[in-house]
Amino acid sequence: MSIWEYANPKKFMQVSGRVLPWLTGLAALTLSLGLVWGFFFTPEDYKQGSTVKILFLHVPAAMMAINAWVMMLVASLIWVIRRHHVSALAARAAAPAGLVFTLIALVTGALWGQPMWNTWWEWDPRLTSFLILLLFYLGYIALWSAIEDPDTAADLTSVLCMVGSVFAVLSRYAVKFWNQGLHQDSTILKVGESDPLDAAYYVPLVVCIAGFVLFFVVMVLVRTRIWIRARRLGALLARERMG
Amino acid sequence: MNALLIRDLKLAFRAGGGFGLGLAFFLLVAVLVPLGVGPEGGILARIAPGILWVGALLACLLSLDRIFALDFEDGSLDLLATAPLPLEGAVAMKAFAHWLVTGLALTILSPVLAVLLNLPAQGYPWLVLSLVVGTPALSVIGAFGAALTVGVRRGGLLLSLLVLPLYVPTLIFGAEVVRRGAEGAATGVPLALLAAITTGSAALLPFAAAAAIRVNLR
C-alpha cells in the first residue's frame, strides 16, 4: 500500500468518488461556520471598525493562492519524474482555483484598502507580488489550453511551473527591494509574541483557513475527475472513429 | 556553434530578418512618451530610466518568436536537435545571436534616446552598463518562452503573457540601477543582483528551453 496506487486513474476515481461527498459537506460546513462566525459574531476593531472582518476572506484566500501554486509545483514534479497522468491533471485542475484565490485576495484587499489606506491600489511589494502571481496563473492556464496534445501540454506546463516558481520567488524579493510598502506583516504566526492577533479573531480565522483548504481540495478533486473523464471520453471517441 | 551563430546573424540582418524592427520600436517608445507625457524636463528626467528599460524590454519581446519559430517551420530545428552539438548549446547560441541583434544594438542606441528623455548626465554610464548586464537575461528568458510556445500557431500573444512576468525582476533591478545612478546614489546592490539574474538564467535556462524544444519536436 503506497500513495502511488492512487496514480492509477481507476483507483483515483474510485477513492475520490467515495471521499468527495464527505469532503464537500465538511468544506461547506467549516467554510460557512468560519465565515458566519467571523462576519457576525466577532467584535469590531476599535480602529478599523467592521472592515476588519474582511480578514476572514482575505487571509485564507491569500494563503491558498500561494499554496495552490506550491501544490501545482509538486504535482508537476511528480509528473516529470514519475509520469503519472493524474498528477499532471491535478496540477491543471488546481490552476483556476489558485487564480480565483489570487483574485479574491486582490479584490478584498482593495476593498479593505480603500477605507483604511485611502487607496484602492498601492504599488506595495505584497500587492505587486500578487499581481505578478496572477499573471503567472494566467500564463500557465493559457499554455495548457493552447496546446492540443495532452502529454506535450503537461510537459511544457510542468517546465513553465518549475521555472515560474523560481522567478516568482525572485520577483517577490525584487519588489520588496523596490518599494518598502504599506502592507502590514502577517500576525498569524505571532501567537505568544507582544502583538498577537486577538483570540476572538484568531479562532474563527483558523476555521476559515481550514474551510478554504478543504474547499481547495474539493475543487481540485472535482476538476481532476472532470479532466480524467474528458480524456476517457476523448479516447472512446477516437476508438469509435477508428473502427 | 560558430556556424550557427553566423547563420543566425546573417538571417537577422538580411531582408525580412526584422533586425531594424526592435530598434525602430525602441525609438518610437522614446519619441512617443514625451509626446504623451508633455515636454517638462523634470518629469521626463524622473521617468527616463523606467521608460528606457520598458522600451528595451518591449523591443526585445517583439523579436522573440523569431528565435525558434522559423526554424521550427522549415525543419532546421529538427536538424539542430539531431546534430552532434547538444541542443542546450544551440539554444544558448541562438539566444546569444538574439542578444547581439537586439540587446547589444539597443544598448548602443540607448544613450541617444536618453538625450531625448532628458536623462541626467551622470546616469548615462549606468544606463549603458545596466543594459549590457541586463539584456542578456531578457534574451535567454525570452528564448525559454519561445521554446515553450514554438509548437503553438500564432503564439505571439501567449509568448508575451508567459515571458512578461518572468521579466519582472530583471526590469526592476535594471531600472533601479539607472535611477540610482542618475541620482548619484550607490548602485552596487541592484547591479550585482541584475548580474546574478543574468548569469543564473544564462546558466540554467538553456537546459529548460532545450527540454521544452525536445517535447515540442516529439
TrEMBL record, chain A:
Pfam families: Cytochrom_C_asm. It comes from Pseudogemmobacter humi. PANTHER family: CYTOCHROME B_B6 PROTEIN-RELATED, HEME EXPORTER PROTEIN C. It is found in: Cell inner membrane; Membrane. Residues 4-183 form the Cytochrome c assembly protein domain. NCBIfam families: ccmC. It comes from the Bacteria. The gene is ccmC. Belongs to the CcmC/CycZ/HelC family. GO terms for cellular component: plasma membrane. Its main location: membrane. It is a multi-pass membrane protein. One of its GO terms (molecular function) is heme transmembrane transporter activity. This is Heme exporter protein C. The chain crosses the membrane at residues 20-41, 61-81, 93-112, 127-147, 159-179, 199-222. Keywords: Cell inner membrane, Cell membrane, Cytochrome c-type biogenesis, Membrane, Transmembrane, Transmembrane helix, Transport. GO terms for biological process: cytochrome complex assembly. Required for the export of heme to the periplasm for the biogenesis of c-type cytochromes.
From TrEMBL, chain B:
Keywords: Cell inner membrane, Cell membrane, Cytochrome c-type biogenesis, Membrane, Transmembrane, Transmembrane helix, Transport. It is a multi-pass membrane protein. GO terms for biological process: cytochrome c biosynthetic process; cytochrome complex assembly. GO terms for cellular component: plasma membrane. It is found in: Cell inner membrane. GO terms for molecular function: heme transmembrane transporter activity. Pfam families: CcmB (PF03379). The keyword Transmembrane applies. Its main location: membrane. InterPro entries: Cyt_c_biogenesis_CcmB (IPR003544), Cyt_c_CcmB_bac (IPR026031). The chain crosses the membrane at residues 12-37, 43-64, 96-117, 123-150, 157-178, 190-213. Required for the export of heme to the periplasm for the biogenesis of c-type cytochromes. NCBIfam families: ccmB. Belongs to the CcmB/CycW/HelB family. This is Heme exporter protein B. The gene is ccmB.
